[in-house]
Inverse folding.
């Protein structure tokens, strides 16, 4: 077996897990994760104080009220059907509770939404600790194999542990032993409720990654205090509601892989009796296998990776690593990042589109000849899908390689995950019976000669060249040339356009290459196409640089001799420049696209050929269109 440590069994208290893979509680679909081969699936969460009567009183149970009990049992059965163990996350939001009567915290204050947060006193602490115990007992009674206590990411227990939230001066504030009193009370009551043999796991943030928050030394000391009540601990990082900390909880492409491993490794050395797991940007089976083989941790947990590909564990076990769809860490699956708009997965078109994209690809009723113009992410997904459905597929690509814009993006330093996705698509494409014609600039006559029954236009888009005097000078280049040929870039750089492309080029040149970079952006926001958390993570990187300047609400009016003239807030300024990079976006060639209509009745536009797209949209459109043919 290629990954013997990853697929070895392990004991969590009295529970045997068939492998070392944990599916973290993200998303609402649990059966695909169980079917996909995870050893333990955390089936979402339950709130210990949802506004219902006490189960102990004989009325509706607190955490699993009567209308949810059968649905919850179905989650457990779905896991057990595939040999997977089922757990559930138990938590209290504390000061962030949506129900205003349950907005408790270590300290009293008024939230931005005018909800009064009440400081917990000792009787209320006893009551809420009892609710935790009650929920744990109910979970055990319902048939869960383990429970997963959320003591991280800024929820109630973490609010008491962290100086960021806890400013008390009584016996529950100040020193760590004081701040730990209430969380330890919760743990003690839970252990008393479920007994000594039931597995109790706990997630905690190694650090919260914002100024004034808990440091790892205190987190480690608390884990040692909690060790007698728990069987396992999962090391995460960051905060949830606090967006500055959120980008360290669900990391973006600007963070290294496995950023929480350093803390998890120390916890394992300090607390060898605990089953230690780590979550956060473990991106492939090789990374997981290595840290298990090293003895750094006992379990590896996956969140977004299993949204990208729920079948990740089975593919790894079968030695099909090249078939695993890699997560891009784009956070499109994350509702906070996207303000609940266009939530989905960039590489798994079925996520949040389960009624539109079937789980199992149906063969075409009648095979057809499908011609696809362009081999970028939209065209490749269309070609792979159409071929697997039994269609005859011909791909016309004007360049000498497939991948389209991915080949350019993959050259950037912070695009390791994009490189993985490009390589994945290349491998999947090679497995299909597709007639690929490289170095073929398609036109109407070429396509007509192929007699297609369906035509998919996926030709991408062209860089925009703004009408700026002096833009044709030798020291001015487009963003594609800048990415592929950094050696041609001088010391002082002005980038015209602060979208995601321009901003990331600027970051890399300033941080990695030591260039002095100024971005000129007409709007008031850098990287406005990116989602909320992406922009925060980008800004955190840029804020640390002394060689980077962003001029927003600024317009370039002329490029002179080694200088750029701009209007910034009605003031004319001249910026010295050895190199000017144009990153003003892209637009489709509508004349070309429109010229291809009328060749066959089934004609589709996908990806950038339709309008500038994110990878998420290109993948969905390419896949969806190919599913609709025949």
């Amino acid at each position: 077996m290629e990954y013997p440590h990853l697929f070895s069994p392990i004991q969590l208290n009295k529970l045997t897990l068939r492998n070392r893979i944990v599916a973290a509680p993200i998303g609402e679909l649990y059966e695909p994760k169980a079917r996909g081969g995870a050893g333990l699936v955390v089936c979402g969460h339950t709130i210990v104080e949802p506004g219902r009567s006490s189960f102990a009183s004989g009325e509706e149970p607190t955490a699993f009220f009567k209308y949810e009990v059968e649905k919850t049992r179905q989650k457990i059965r779905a896991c057990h059907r595939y040999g997977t163990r089922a757990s559930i996350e138990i938590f209290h939001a504390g000061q962030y509770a949506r129900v205003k009567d349950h907005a408790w915290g270590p300290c009293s204050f008024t939230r931005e939404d005018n909800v009064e947060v009440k400081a917990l006193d000792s009787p209320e602490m006893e009551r809420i600790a009892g609710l935790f115990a009650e929920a744990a007992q109910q979970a055990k009674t319902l048939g869960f194999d383990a429970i997963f206590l959320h003591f991280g990411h800024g929820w109630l227990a973490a609010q008491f542990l962290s100086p960021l939230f806890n400013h008390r001066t009584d016996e529950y504030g100040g020193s760590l032993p004081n701040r730990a009193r209430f969380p330890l009370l919760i743990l003690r009551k839970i252990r008393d409720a479920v007994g000594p043999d039931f597995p109790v796991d706990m997630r905690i943030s190694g650090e919260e990654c914002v100024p004034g928050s808990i440091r790892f030394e205190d987190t480690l000391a608390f884990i040692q205090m909690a060790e007698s009540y728990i069987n396992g601990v999962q090391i995460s990082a960051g905060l949830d509601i606090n967006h500055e900390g959120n980008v360290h909880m669900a990391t973006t492409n600007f963070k290294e892989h496995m950023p929480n491993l350093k803390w998890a490794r120390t916890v394992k050395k300090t607390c060898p009796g605990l089953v230690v797991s780590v979550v956060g940007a473990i991106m492939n089976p090789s990374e997981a296998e290595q840290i298990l083989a090293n003895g750094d941790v006992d379990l590896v947990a996956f969140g977004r990776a299993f949204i990208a590909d729920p079948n990740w564990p089975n593919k790894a076990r079968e030695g099909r690593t090249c078939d695993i769809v890699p997560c891009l860490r784009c956070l499109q699956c994350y509702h906070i990042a996207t303000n609940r708009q266009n939530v989905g997965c960039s590489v798994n078109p079925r996520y949040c589109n389960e009624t539109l994209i079937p789980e199992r690809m149906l063969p075409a009723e009648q095979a057809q000849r499908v011609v696809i113009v362009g081999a970028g992410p939209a065209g490749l997904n269309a070609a792979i899908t159409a071929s697997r459905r039994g269609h005859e597929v011909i791909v016309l690509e004007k360049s000498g390689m497939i991948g389209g814009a991915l080949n350019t993006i993959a050259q950037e330093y912070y695009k390791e995950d994009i490189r993985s996705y490009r390589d994945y698509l290349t491998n999947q494409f090679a497995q299909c019976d597709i007639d690929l014609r490289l170095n073929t600039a398609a036109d109407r006559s070429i396509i007509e000669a192929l007699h297609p029954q369906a035509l998919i236009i996926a030709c991408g888009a062209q860089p925009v060249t703004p009408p700026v005097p002096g833009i044709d000078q030798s020291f001015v280049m487009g963003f594609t040339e800048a990415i592929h040929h950094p050696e041609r870039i001088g010391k002082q750089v002005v980038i015209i356009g602060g979208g995601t492309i321009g901003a990331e080029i600027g970051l890399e040149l300033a941080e990695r290459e030591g260039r002095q970079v100024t971005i000129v952006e007409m709007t008031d926001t850098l990287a406005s196409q990116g989602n909320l958390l992406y922009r925060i993570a980008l800004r955190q990187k840029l804020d640390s640089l002394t060689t980077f300047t962003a001029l927003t609400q600024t317009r370039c009016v002329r490029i002179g001799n080694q200088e750029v003239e701009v209007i910034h807030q009605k003031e004319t300024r001249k910026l010295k420049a050895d190199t000017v990079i144009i990153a003003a976006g892209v637009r489709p060639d509508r004349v070309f696209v429109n010229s291809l209509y009328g060749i066959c009745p089934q004609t589709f536009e996908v990806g950038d050929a339709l309008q500038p797209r994110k990878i998420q949209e290109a993948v969905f459109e390419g896949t969806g269109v190919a599913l609709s043919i025949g």
Notes: The chain has a mean pLDDT of 94. The chain is about 35% helix and 20% strand. The longest helix spans residues 122-142. The radius of gyration is 27 Å.
